[in-house]
Design a protein that fits this description.
alpha+beta; two-stranded antiparallel sheet; globular
C-alpha cells in the first residue's frame, strides 16, 4: 500500500471545541498559524517561552530564568515543537499546528474517558490517496 497527498485540517477548531464544555479557552496553550521558515524563531520562541513558564508553574519549581535547568527545559520544548508542528509546507511557508502540553494532557484524558468525551476528534479531517492492490 502506498499513501500519498496526505492533508490534515481542523485542529484549531477541534481544540477550541474540546475546551467548550468547561469554557476553559483561556487555558489553551496550542499554537496555530502560518510560519515563514526563513525566520521560524519569530513565533516559535514565544510559544516555547510560554510552555516553559507553564511547566515551571505546574511543577512549582523555582528555576532561575536562563539557568542551565531552564535552558534544558527550553531546549526540550523547542525540539518537540520543531519536530512535531508542521502540517503542510510549501517553499518557505509552513502551516503549523502545535498542540501545547496542557491541551495534549486534556485531549489524552478525554480520549481515555470514552467515546462520549472524545467527540472533538471528529472535527479533525484527514485526507489521503491510497494506492493498493485490487484484492486488498
Amino acid at each position: 500500500m502506498k499513501f500519498e497527498n496526505t492533508q490534515i485540517s481542523g485542529f484549531e477548531g477541534s481544540i477550541r471545541g474540546m475546551r467548550n464544555p468547561l469554557e476553559s479557552w483561556h487555558k489553551s496553550d496550542s499554537f496555530f498559524g502560518i510560519v515563514n521558515l526563513e525566520y521560524p524563531q519569530d513565533n516559535r520562541e514565544d510559544v516555547v517561552d510560554l510552555w516553559v513558564m507553564q511547566e515551571l508553574a505546574r511543577s512549582h519549581n523555582q528555576i532561575e530564568p536562563y539557568s542551565k535547568e531552564w535552558e534544558e527545559l527550553w531546549e526540550k520544548y523547542d525540539l518537540w515543537l520543531w519536530d512535531n508542528s508542521a502540517l503542510q509546507w510549501d517553499n518557505d511557508i509552513a502551516i503549523v499546528a502545535a498542540l501545547g502540553p496542557a491541551d495534549l494532557a486534556l485531549a489524552q484524558k478525554l480520549v481515555l474517558a470514552g467515546p462520549e468525551h472524545c467527540k472533538f476528534l471528529r472535527q479533525i479531517f484527514v485526507s489521503v490517496d491510497i494506492t493498493a492492490p485490487i484484492y486488498w
